[in-house]
Amino acid sequence: MYATFKTFGVLLIVYVLSFESAFSQNFNKTSIKKFRENYIETHDVVKGDSVKYLPFYPIKKAFVKPAKFIPLVQPEDYKMPTSSGISKAAFKIGYLEFQINGINLKLSIYQLKSLMQSKKYHDDVFTPFTDLTSGITSYGGGRYLDFTLSEIQNSDFTIDFNKAYNPSCIYADGFNCPIPPRENDLPIKIKAGEKIYVLYEKKHLDLN
Questions:
Q1: What is the 8-class DSSP label of residue 174?
Q2: CA nearest to 54, candidates 200, 183, 186
Q3: pLDDT digits over 155-179, tens only?
Q4: Is residue 85 left, alpha or beta, with left meaning phi > 0 and alpha meaning psi from -120 to 50?
């Protein structure tokens, strides 16, 4: 009888753990799907029927990783180069350290000075990055990840590359898109987040 109850207890624990794991995974996917839906619906440039040309990699849990924010003792002034040649005033405030496939990685985090006086965006920070998919299946000019200071300062913060998105200059001219610094060139393929814009790819093929 004891053995039967013991076996039942083990099975129950396994079932609960499996359920929690499945729930966690589904919750993450739901959250990312909502993020993408909102991104498409509120896109600054791409509107109407053209939104169907916004492609994304499949959602992958492998690109959601615990990350540790390492603040600089003193934020550094940084003149961020942009696609237009006009630099943007920013602070480099620290790094995010994380691992993917056992590889230690880090990304510099920046805060634009122009947003620091904004009531709505004063807490916003971001990281522009490139990786081994850049110029192949993702935009060659890199992609961005947005955070808030309060998010990255949490001890349980996770970096989610499924939320990586393209800069506005891939869609239209006239934007000053920050160019990722060389130190933010990741030596792996980040097959997550937004892919290269289909109409951009077609336009450049037609030009050639």
A1: S
A2: 200
A3: 889 999 999 999 998 888 888 999 9
A4: left
Question: Are 97 and 158 within 8 A, CB to CB?
Answer: no
Vertex 79: Cα angle to 73 and 82 (nearest 5): 135
49-103 tens-digit pLDDT: 888 888 999 999 999 999 999 999 999 999 999 999 999 999 999 999 999 999 9
Place of tokens 């729930």: 23
Confirm if 191 and 57 have CB atoms less than 8 A apart. yes
Q: Which two tokens stand for residue 142?
A: 């890199």
Length of the chain: 208
Nearest residue to 157 (alpha-carbon basis) of 165, 166, 147, 167: 147
As a whole-number percent, the residues of the chain with pLDDT over 90 amount to 64
Instruction: Choose between 132 and 46: higher pLDDT.
Output: 132
Provide mean pLDDT across the span 110-136: 95
The helices-and-strands tally (H runs, E runs) of the chain is 4, 7
Distance of CA 9 to the CA centre of its chain: 41
Task: DSSP for 84-127, please give it.
Answer: TS--EEEEEEEEEEEEETTEEEEEEEEEEHHHHT-TTTTTEEEE
pLDDT at 148: 96
Residue 20 clears pLDDT 50, i.e. is over it? no
Residue 70 · residue 97 · CB < 8 Å? yes
